[in-house]
Request: fold
Amino acid sequence: MEPTSSTLADKADGQSLGQATGKAHWLDTYFGVSRRGSSLRTEILAGIATFLASMYIIVVNPAILSDAGIPFSAALSATVLISFMSSLAMGLYARNPILVAPGMGMNALFTYTLVLGAGLSWEVALGCVFWSGVLFATLAMFNVREAIIEAIPPSLRYAITCGIGLFITFIGFKNAGFIVGSDATLVTLGSMDASLITFFIGMMATAILVIMRFNGALILGIALTTLLATPMGRLWGGEVVVEWSGLAAWPDFSAVMQVDIWGALKVAYLPFIFVMLFTNFFDALSCFMALSESADLKDKNGNPRNLKRSMTVDAFASMIAAPLGTSAAQTFIESGAGVAQGGRTGLVAVTIALLFLPFLFLSPLLSLVPGIATAPALVLVGLFMLAPISKIDWTRFEQAFPAFLAIILMPLTYSITLGIAFGFLSFVLIKLATGKLYDIKPAMWVSAALSVVMLVTTQ
Reply:
């Protein structure tokens, strides 16, 4: 008997359902979704949550790198590309629910310390990023993280994160014109004009969105502040700051392969390479450890799951970032947003990667965002980075003083490396003066020596 049309349709539907079920089964098996107590739906929703919490980097990173001379559209394309590639690798290779993208703090170090502070060209600064990635990859492959962890006291690790947070907050206030230079007091409040009022309203709105736990609060704050800034120069206040230049365009790859790898190999630049290595390494490690504790992402020995693979992805992401034209990529603590939604596997990171990709073609739309719109996000990111300050034992002065110097000197000297250098040096000097040489590990001696080299060669 000839098959009827309904029979053929049922058969086709059955094949489609079988193919879909087969793909779902493959994803479940590869990522271990069911084994981790999750579901495909939960993993995808967790990826969306993390993306919304961190997509501000698509706008904020190019805004900071453009201060170093990298074209905004080129930095945006590089940001999206490295976020896509490294998050995809984190999902497929390390199989962890973690976003990897150009890091806040690393971009500030790149722009305001290496380029504007030390006078390096952005091409040479990218070379320093590359070599820090090479060293990071070496440490990750040879699995020497324990020795590094033990060398740097926890108080200084926490202090560096906090100091970078204050530095980023200071940059946010400066970019908004909220804080300006003053001959009498060094810094002071800016003029209460339309721009400053717009920034303040945007900052308060963003803070309220964060307090109310809106997914994507920072990006919503950026969008709202941009809308508030649109009438400026049209209906009131100074220059036009928001100008339409189109919806989409081809990616700008003008910064790709502009890295000066060999120009970065100078003795004077070694401290910068080391500081980037140190910052990236510990940010990655602390992120993995924090997420593994909060979501029980541990192996049978109680260590963070697939830590070596995750660190390797992070390291190679830093190496690849430089040739693409952006500062080092690193793990994002905002990955906690997806983990809080129940995300447990690499499928979360794959989802995040795919969500980044369309923004490769939206640079004209995103270039609408003015500096006063990204400034509130910088202020709030600085606040988030201050969280480890409570872990410092302020009752033990020998720990508290080096930590305090590292924290306070970063914004006051407008230099991340100076804050780290004086933190390391003061720690070593205090231990020497109090006869506690056994507290100074070999890597800490090296850190202090590099700090002295940096102070001598950059002044």
